[in-house]
Amino acid sequence: MSSKSRSAPGAGHVGPLLSARCTGCGKTSEKRTNEIVGDTPTGSFQHVCHSCRSVTWWNVLRVLEEADSE
Ligand SMILES: [Zn+2]
To answer: Annotated region Disordered: where (predicted)?
Structure first.
């Protein structure tokens, strides 16, 4: 019986895993955050964009993985 409930190290921070688009450069990437403004499936959040080389706003496109709520 092996239980793999933990995310792999380096996968991100806490919160749901999201597919999101940077409003600065339009790049789509997978991000993890629990600081979403608005509803998770349609909200926005601030995150570092490596293309923009700064913190930008990201629009959620899809929820890939729900956050552990416990
Ligand atoms: Zn960007």
So the answer is: 1-40
Give distance in angstroms: CA of 3 to centre of ligand 1. 36
Would you write out the chain's pLDDT as a tens digit for each of its 70 residues? 655 555 445 545 689 999 999 999 999 999 999 999 999 999 999 999 999 999 999 999 999 999 876 5
- Residue 53 belongs to a domain: yes
Nearest CA-CA partner of 13 in 44, 37, 35, 29: 35
d(CA 49, CA 20): 11
- Total domains, the chain: 1
